[in-house]
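Hi team,

As requested, here is the filled-out complex form for the calcium ion run. I kept the field names the same as last time so the parser does not choke. Let me know if anything looks off before we queue the next batch.

— J.
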Amino acid sequence: AKAEATNHSRFYIASVDQEIRARKQLEKDLSQALRNHEFHLVYQPQISLQSDRIIGAEALIRWTHPERGMVPPDEFIPLAELNGTIVDIGQWVLDEACRQAASWAAAGMPLRIAVNLSAVQLRQPDIVGTILATLGRHEIPPGRLELEVTETGFMENLEDAVEKLRQLNSAGINIAVDDFGTGYSSLTYLKRMPVQHLKIDKQFVQDLLVNEDDTRIANTIIDLGRSLNLAVIAEGVETQEQEFYLRQRGCQIAQGYHFSRPLLPEAFVKFVEAFHGK
Ligand code: C2E
Ligand code: CA
Ligand code: CA
Ligand code: CA
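And here is what came back:
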């Protein structure tokens, strides 16, 4: 039994070692991905449940690794946050999303664009100026941009985050709290934060009609939104039943595979035209 245990731990150490090596390699590849043009953005429509119109799109990053193919953002974003490459990657995302929004506006489709902002980006001293300059460069009115921030990320330096979000918000940029309900959602910070939207995380939407706890959580977020005068966005809406429930419960905006997967720019434009019956 002892020998067996030793073998197990050797095997364990070997596999951990392999994992570390693979991670190091991925980190190295990540630092070159921007230069090698390996990223692109896809856009997922956000639908107003009140007007049945598409009111905007969330920009989501995609990485095509030269050998591994598609690497999901859940895998590389945390890594990019750890080694700081998220700052340059995030800036590229913002720039590309604004460029796209400008080209849609020029084509008579002035949709709002939502961009995920990492807490690491928000910690950069010059982030407010950088974001405003990017909007200016693309001639995008600030009201057309929404920044999605998660609560967990900025908790460790709340004062600094609140101050920057306040500056961005008073310039006209919308702020959404992403993954709402999964972190340390606190009413205290919500009251102090300059926020316009709460996003119900897809984990609560997925089992909305199956799991009573999830139904209660979703209901609570919708009610909280109403009492704080914040519009609520449900992400991960996959069925007609979920859409129906959310609409009659008073959720204002929905996003998910039931309407559309995240799309490449051309497909996105076609989707919007078809949805609006053009
Ligand atoms: P998130 O911001 O919470 O984005 C929602 C995720 O749910 C996206 O996954 C989206 O493709 C997926 N999704 C949308 N509708 C449905 C649905 O109906 N069912 C299911 N099962 N999933 C749905 P994605 O694109 O893989 O992104 C994962 C996460 O990676 C994002 O979660 C976000 O935290 C991060 N991420 C993606 N793009 C960026 C970016 O440009 N910058 C930063 N900082 N993070 C990003
Ligand atoms: Ca998001
Ligand atoms: Ca989420
Ligand atoms: Ca997330």
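Two things worth flagging: The mean pLDDT is 92. The CA atoms of residues 17 and 66 lie 23 Å apart.

Thanks,
J.
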